[in-house]
Amino acid sequence: MSYHCCTMVVLLSALFILWGETGLCLEQEGEFHFKGDIRHFSVAYNTVYIATERRLYQLSHDLTLVQSLTQRGILIDPLSYNPQFNRVSETDMWNTTFSVNVLLPLVADENLITCGVFDSGCGYCEVLDLKNVSNVLYKEHIQVGSLWRSSASVSFLVNVETRTRTETYILAAVQQDRDKPSKASCPPVSHAVQLYNTNDKQMGQIFSFNTNEKVPGIQSVGDVEFVDGFQINSIIYLFSNLPSGDQNNKVRLLWLKDEKYKPQTLKSLRGATLSVSDGGRGCRLIASSVIPGGPPMLWIGVFSVDGGQTNTELVLFDISPDLSGGTDTDPDFCVECGNRDRPEPKTLRPEKVIFRQDFMTSVLAVRQKEWTVLFIGTGDGQLIKLSVDKNYQTMCPTVLYKTSDDRKVFSKLHLDQVDLKHVYVPFQNQINRVPVSKCSTYKTLQDCWSAQDPYCVWCGSKNSCTFEEDCQDSDWLSIPDDSQQNKMVSYKVAQDQTGQITLNIQMHVTVGKDASSNFACQFSPSSSERFEMKQLPPKFPHCTSILKDSTLPARAGLPVTVKIRLGTTSVEERLNLLNCTNIRGPPTSVLCRKCIMAGCGWTANGCSWAKEGVGNDSVCQKMESWMNFSRPEISSITPSVVSFYGRNHAVLSGSNLSSVIGVRIQAAMDCTPQESPVWNNTGKHLTFHIPSAENKGVVKVCILLPDGSCHGSAKITYRSAPSCSNISPNSSWASGQRKITIQGSFLEFVEIIQHSGAPQEVTLSGNINYEPLQNLTYHSPAAGNTRGTFSSTLYLKVANKSLACSTGITYYPDPEFTTFASTKTGDDVRITIQKKADKLGMTKEELSVWGIHEEKLHPCIMTEKDTNEETEFFICEIQGTPITKFREIKIQYGDQKVTLNTSSNPYLLMLIFLLLIPCIIVGVVIFYQSKQKKLAAKMNKIMEDLELDIRNDIRQGFVDLQTEKADLMENVGAIPFLDYKHFASRTFFPESESLMKMCIRDIGQDAVKVQLDESYKGLSKLIQDQLFLTSMVHALEEQKSFTIKDKCAMASLLTVALHNNLSYLTEVMETLLKDLMQQNSNTQPKLLLRRTESIVEKLLTNWMSICLYGFLRETVGQHLFLMVSALTQQTAKGPVDCVTEKALYTLSEDWLLWQAPDFTSLKLKVLFAVGSDGEVSEPLEVGALSCDSIEQVKEKILSTFKAKFGFPYNTALRDVCIEFEKDGSFAPLEEVDSSSEVIGEVMMLNTLKHYKVPDGATIKVLSRKIHPPLSPQGSLKDDENFSGKYFHLIDPDVDEDQRKNPERKKLKLKEVHLTKLLSTKVAVHSYVENLFKSIWGMPHCKAPHAVKYFFDFLDAQADNMKITDPDVLHIWKTNSLPLRFWINILKNPQFVFDIEKTPNLDGCLSVIAQAFMDSFSLSEIQLGKHAPTNKLLYAKDIPKFKQEVRLYYKQIRDQPPITHSEFRDFLLEESKKHVNEFNEAAALKELFKFIRRYFTEIKEKLDQNGAPAELTEQLHEVKNLFDGLKSCSWD
User: Fold this and answer.
1) 433 pairs with which residues across the strands?
2) Do residues 411 and 419 make contact, with C-beta atoms less than 8 angstroms apart?
């Protein structure tokens, strides 16, 4: 069937509606979920195509949905010659699903070929538009590929060179299984391998495999399962498994050679057997990948060595084709299958087993410089990265991504073809886009090098770890190309025959051209004795120095500092040179390591000079310890299978364990081990914590002795984390102990169960053998609040991690049993118990009942339960008893016991009650009068206390207000201004960090003039045409899909692209502003420039930022920084709530900590630990508050340290721990511990007051890395539910709290503390005034050029538009300068300085910014007692500010105008200052994306505006150039 004959088919297909799928969601960038399971996926340059069970998806390279096409429909006449398939909406009736078995993007023809089968039919193929899969170009009912929905078959495109052109065919290799039944109504697929046409121009037309020479294809002798296939140059490679009856398996490789025609190509069949073990049988191939960059043709395969899925290996083969033998002679595959003898094929042996890991399912090989990087998917949901050097030596594997459960990774992985920096990782019903490296997370040169990542380089010009292509000059260094090294810098000490000592330094790095050409070394001996060193000329990577004195200090050695420079990167190494022959002692592993670390060599006689012995510490590992220890052995570890979060309190059993000091846990391939301390060591058993692991899998375990040696051997398996899918029953009575069953996976790893709202934890100890559990039963803990109903979240605690269940349980009050009745039935007594109906759903099995007679218990067997709307009835029987009636019963549920009694004679009770009524009335009256007197006295006392507290709070506020003085500016230090390009990028792109980074050049690139290619030059020239640019802007703004976010991005990209021509940018802005004014002139001219709703309004913001940067930095910047610093210091003088970040001293009522407790100021003496031997520094005095949390104390210590010494402390905040000296010893201060106060479900953060730290106390600062605490505790703020679990100064539940802590009974009134706002204002007011005056001040009686020029422009436009209202002009100027520029700077000082903005600081700045804008307002606001405090705070200052603003505007108006030539010179000077600081090419590339998206609309607008034909042609030429650039990138 021809393409030309299917016009009707295309028209019919155009009638489909693409129905959205409710189940799909884009959860985050780089992740996409599907409702059905993935069947196939493929990648074509910038698009990902995924076929699921229900739909076909077209995603962009960043996994954004572009199109989707349903695969469900109606199949009409499935048994006829030409059945019809019509797609329908997923909500309509359907009778079949098209299951895709072949999914092949044919980029050259811009087609996507899909073939497969129907549920109830035969084969079917479609040709779809590659750019829009909803566009069906052709369809045909024909079998290409397998007949079955699930089969071990592969298909891919191959190119065959004919005499005239290159033909592309589909190679379909179909599983052959003689036991699988065939479809009676469908033609059988008898060929294992066949070539099919891809277009009508080929002989036999599309999808045909017939030619003039009728070659049926390649057949298999027995069953075959195909795994993978590809074509490299003219050779086609095909891999398969041949299962046999004896449970063995043979892995076969077929070679086909491009022989001009399909028949000859198939007849060129040759084969080989891949042998992993002896004989090549028993192994199965699971997945494979070719390694780019041959010859030789290297290939890597995932093999199952036991025939299953568990025990897998990654094996490297050289699969270079052997074309010397005959063709079509393979014993397992044939084209012309006669009875001739067929010899056994050759056997290929592996080059090396690269990696062993359980459950490997897929592999992708990528060449990165001299390295091969392998990305490995596993059956338990991991993506592992493994780097292999040219000698096939492997780095430590790293886990790039892992799931919390055991989701299997799909058998195929693909690389993102756009940036080559992401891997697509498909799972059952989702696909993730995972970065190939995490270079940016390594902050130092050493960290970058130690990561041993071939993708990462240390970029000297950026001073950061990046991808090599992101370091745009050659000033970089990275790991060496050959093999793994332990140190970046190594050294050897040698002595020649004359006694001369030589120090040889070697750098183990690969460097760029700029770095290697600028290589230098400097040796500096530092000793009290004089040592001279003669330095030889350095030759990368070696530096050599000769000691003129041939002797070294005998014991201490000679300290030498070596400074090495590579380009702009400097490396400093401190060495201690020892005389190698003086390193003596018993030949032990300890002495051997000391010798090797000193740069010496180890010989059989001990330590010697470097050239005389072995310089590798591997020789030391074979040596015995000199210490006299009995060799310990490991017999078992319980548990030995854990989740990747680890396990607390594991038990190791064995012999001779008394001397063991730790347990070493070693991951695969001798990577960095983890060590865990031990306790409760009895000699036969010891306890230790199994630490968390980065990846899942098996690790080795040995036990450490004091000499550093490790003995014994055991294994621990890391698996997925536990999860819960269902909880039954989903409720509990408040007293707890109800039997609850959790359903889920890996529940055997759960150690503790927690319920929110329940103070007690449930520790699990039943599963002693740690067998896999899908059901976990426990008894619910009692609720903390036994009244009322509440929902509780259930947490599974594994090691130190709490995992929340997706479903929770509800706590209800305990069941209420009301009465019971006892009835004699034969020999038994029937008990009927009544209970109030509730939502607990209590079953009869949860209830135990006994009848009580003469203090003896008689068990009652539960028989049934009945229910009506208000009452539940439980019925039980006491069997075989002579007792006729029971007057008392005992009921037990959980651990609660209830006793019920039957009622006595009702008439007697009624008489007694009537007689008691008068007595009760008299007693109640007497009690009421007595209670009333006590209550009145108590209320008087409470009111007196309350009045006293309020008086004290008001008096203290008055004292603060009158004594507040501006003593805030002692240690501000240097002002951390951002440079221009970072200021501009943050102003241009405040909401897009990617564009912010993309559009600036980094250090080292600024001086480089980048040449644009033809496409970028063409676009640059095009936007320099004002008619085109204004037409494009108007065309885009007319589109409803062009959002405000797009407009802002467009304006900022234009600013970057035209930054070198600010004069032209100004002209364009003026033209667009005039157009905007014409639009607003007839409606509301006062609203002009009030919001950013057009491109020109954002353009004006950027223009102001460029032109006023010099004024901002030279005049305003210092005042702004002083004001921000003053606010920060004033806030720190009073309490700040660590959880909500509210403060007592603030300008914003919303951020006022009016609940602040009483506090005192403390002066602490802080000691800093030096080294690991207990030495401490001189004390440093640090100010703190008694109510500060431990985290806040650490912050104040580090802040004081930096202010005192001018540089930050060498340990990060999260790695700092502090201790408090008490009674001669130091006790740790922790954020929370067992002594922390708990209110309801929430825990209070510990404060200095909690630990009773007095004024003048001594605090010691330690590093967690050098002094690990006994109970490690990371930052609590890392917890996602930090604000829900903890509180600091603001109580979570005041009513409950008043019952617990008498100190908190003081009533706090917010209004009493409003004076703190005024106190803060007084403290910082002089800084605010100075700032405002610097903004509207007139240095040298001249406004900044841009302000004067633009205000004159506005005046001129008002004249042209005949606007006489002065208020309109005032509003225009206010909207364009203060509102559009200064407010942005006032509220975002982080745009100007390298500082962080806290929420409280943001609130204060908002108040100041509001006062600033009120100063420009023309209206008079009447303020009363209900007015907001942010208006009241500066109400008296605003009139004075308004007068200054009016004078400011008048001075600008009266100032002589600036000529166009003067302003043009100013703009030219601004452009020159910042030449090449912006990435013009990146901005042009992003601009063209908008042009491509709205190409038709722009072209139409140009035609409307009468653009010349040359301009339209230029636009088309630019589009073609960019499309060609895209095509070249694919090629």
Assistant:
1) 424
2) no
pLDDT (tens digit, 9 = 90+) per residue, 737-794? 999 999 998 998 998 999 988 888 888 876 666 677 889 999 999 998 777 889 999 9
Tell me the residue type at 117.
Answer: V
C-alpha dihedral sign at 463, 467, 470, 472: positive
Does a cis peptide bond (omega within 30 degrees of 0) precede residue 296?
yes
Alpha-carbon span 674 to 1504, nearest angstrom: 71
Helix or strand (DSSP H, E) at 1493:
helix 1480-1493
Phi/psi of residue 1377, nearest 5 degrees: -110, -70
Pairing of strands 1180-1185, 1161-1170: antiparallel
Looking at this protein, which amino acid is placed at residue 951? R
What is the Cα–Cα distance from 1325 to 1306, expressed in whole angstroms? 32
Tokens of 63: 């996994």
Kindly give the pairing relationship between strand 422-426 and strand 414-415: antiparallel
Look at residue 579 and give its three-state secondary structure.
coil
Tell me what the pLDDT averaged over the chain comes to: 84
Complete edge-to-edge strand list for the sheet that includes strand 641-643: 633-638, 647-655, 685-690, 674-679, 662-666, 697-704, 710-719, 641-643
Backbone angles phi, psi at 996, to 5 degrees: -60, -45
Chain-centroid distance, C-alpha 1022 = 40
Rounded Cα gap, residues 95 and 99, in angstroms: 13
Amino acid at residue number 836: K
Which residue reads 């980065």 in tokens?
A: 694
pLDDT digits (tens, 9 = 90+) for 125-163: 999 999 999 999 998 888 888 887 766 899 999 999 887
- Per residue in 1286-1343, pLDDT (tens digit) is 888 887 764 444 444 544 444 455 565 677 888 888 888 889 999 999 998 877 778 8
Of 881, 838, 833, 873, the C-alpha closest to 857 is 881
Q: Read off the pLDDT band of 19 (50, 70, 90).
A: very low
Whole-number pLDDT of residue 678: 92
Q: What is the mean pLDDT of residues 981-991?
A: 86
Under 8 Å between Cβ of 781 and 760: yes
Cα(227)–Cα(208) distance, rounded to whole angstroms?
24
pTM of the model: 0.58
Confidence of residue 973 (pLDDT cuts 50, 70, 90): low
d(CA 1440, CA 1394): 33
- CB neighbourhood size of 384 (10 A): 26
The answer to whether 783 and 760 have CB atoms below 8 angstroms apart is: no
316 membership: H or E segment, kind and range: strand 312-318
| Secondary structure (DSSP) of 944-978 | HHHHHHHHHHHHHHHHHHHH------S---S--BP
The phi, psi pair for 209, rounded to 5°, reads: -115, 0
Amino acid at 947: E
Query: What are the residues facing 1259 on neighbouring strands?
Result: 1166, 1220
Residue with tokens 């999914």: 103
**1132 closest CA partner among 1192, 1190, 1191:** 1192
Integer Cα distance of 1135 and 186 in angstroms:
81
Summarize the confidence of residues 277-300 as an average pLDDT: 83
Helices (H), ranges, 1206-1344: 1282-1285, 1294-1300, 1315-1336
Q: Which two tokens stand for residue 1048?
A: 């802002």
Say how far apart CA 495 and CA 552 lie, in whole Å. 11
Does residue 657 carry a pLDDT above 80? yes
Burial class (CB in 10 A: 0-12, 13-18, 19+), 244: exposed
Residue with tokens 């600062």: 1261
Q: Which residue has the higher pLDDT, 513 or 1070?
A: 1070
- The answer to whether the peptide bond before residue 1389 is cis (omega within 30 degrees of 0) is no
User: What counts of helices (H) and strands (E) characterise the chain?
Assistant: 29, 80
With contact defined as beta carbons under 8 Å apart, do 1499 and 1507 qualify? Answer: no
Largest CA distance in the chain: 125
What are the C-alpha distances in Å from 1248 to residues 1163, 1298, 1351?
Answer: 12, 22, 57
